[in-house]
Design brief:
Elements (H helix, E strand, L loop, with lengths): L2 H19 L7 H8 L17 H16 L3 H17 L7 H11 L15 H12 L4 H13 L5 H20 L6 H8 L6 H15 L4 H7 L10 H14 L4 H9 L5 H16 L6 H5 L8 H15 L15 H18 L6
Helix pairs in contact: 1-3, 1-6, 1-13, 1-14, 1-16, 3-4, 3-6, 3-16, 4-5, 4-7, 6-7, 6-8, 6-14, 7-8, 8-12, 8-14, 10-12, 12-13, 12-14, 13-14
Length: 353
């Protein structure tokens, strides 16, 4: 698969997974089923349409920082740090606690080198797929970019290892393309002494359940996640990797399976959507999901143009500037988004429980 297909599929796949999973964020698997039944998933946030959350916004900021930096890891970190500052100034509706603390530290003068806080949340993992696709031919660059993206907000080594596993998964998916994913080969490639024992055990667990033909539900239950996937990286990353490997080549199936687990459904949907999109391209994403994504100013059209710029740079065709974004529209958009999220939160106070 060519670079533009992989990058476009990764960005739009993450956006679609995010928007479909967002209405279920924070709901247990059981309660989400009572709310929405067993029908096929679709966007439900705003009159049958979908909007994106921080997962997609961070993916876009990473892509913009890659363009602004020329691929240099330190310049990438500087650019991403300023974009995170600006993002928080726009009053986003959802910010992880570790990310919030880190951006506040950036605002009061901390360097990106020491702004991170001790946390093993899944924020760095959600930023990782686009890095893996962009730096697919340069392992040293991939590691350096993941390191900068992670340490800026999360300093627990588990957060960086989890993000690196996701970045390598995106790289492997982009390389495999339509030839399909050999999950045994991927696990061999990423298993090594550099991984914490918990991630090594998680990879063994993934392999065991794939060999046994387990479903995504079965795997989550074995991890004790029957009520939903938490934001802890040792929960998020193994479940997302399993869903990607179990459903490679089936975008809808993989995204639906991980979202239906409940919990942090927008993040897991975004990560799996990014991985499956990186391997299969934009055409694998259900058209009705793309058509029902109506956000702005980070619209589907804008994200497609962003992918084209990043792909051109990754292929050494050009060295473009970051894609202009209508910054005055961010605050009113976020206020609308926050209002919609509050309405959904209020609705959850009532049956069915």
């Amino acid at each position: 698969m060519n670079t533009i297909d992989s990058i476009t599929g990764c960005i739009l796949g993450a956006a679609v997974g995010d928007s479909v999973g967002l209405p279920r964020e924070g709901l247990s698997r059981r309660r989400a089923q009572r709310f929405y039944g067993n029908s096929q998933l679709r966007q439900r946030l705003l009159f049958g349409r979908g909007m994106i959350s921080d997962d997609t916004e961070h993916t876009c900021m990473v892509a913009q920082a890659l363009l602004a930096s020329g691929g240099d890891p330190d310049r990438f970190a500087q650019s991403l740090a300023w974009r995170l500052r600006g993002w928080l100034a726009g009053i986003p509706a959802g910010v992880g606690l570790a990310t919030l603390k880190s951006i506040v530290r950036l605002w009061i003068g901390y360097s990106w080198r020491n702004s991170g806080v001790w946390s093993a949340g899944n924020g760095p993992a959600m930023r990782a797929p686009i890095i893996g696709v962009f730096a697919s031919d340069d392992d040293e660059l991939l590691r350096a970019l993941v390191n900068r993206s992670t340490r800026m907000t999360h300093t627990d080594p588990l957060a960086e290892q989890g993000a690196l596993l996701i970045a390598k998964a995106a790289r492997y998916a982009a390389r495999a393309g339509e030839n399909g994913v050999d999950w045994e080969k991927y696990i061999r490639e990423v298993s090594g002494s550099e991984l914490d024992k918990h991630f090594l055990a998680a990879l063994d667990n993934i392999q065991e359940h794939l060999n046994g033909g387990a479903s995504v539900d079965d795997f989550a239950n074995a991890l004790g996640l029957a009520e939903g996937v938490s934001g802890y990286v040792l929960h998020t990353v193994p479940v997302c990797l399993f869903s990607w490997l179990r459903h490679h080549g089936d975008f809808r199936g993989g995204v639906e399976a991980v979202i239906k687990l409940g919990g942090d459904a927008d993040t897991t949907g975004a990560i799996v959507g990014g991985l499956l999109g990186a391997g299969s391209g934009q055409n694998a994403i259900p058209h009705e999901w793309l058509d029902r994504l109506v956000d702005w100013p980070r619209s589907v059209k804008w994200m497609t143009h962003l992918a084209e710029r990043l792909a051109g740079f990754a292929d050494d065709i050009e060295n473009p500037e970051p894609l202009p974004l209508c910054w005055p529209g961010i605050l009113p958009r976020n206020l609308l988004f926050m209002s919609v999220v509050l309405v959904h939160g209020f609705r959850r106070l009532f049956p069915p429980y």
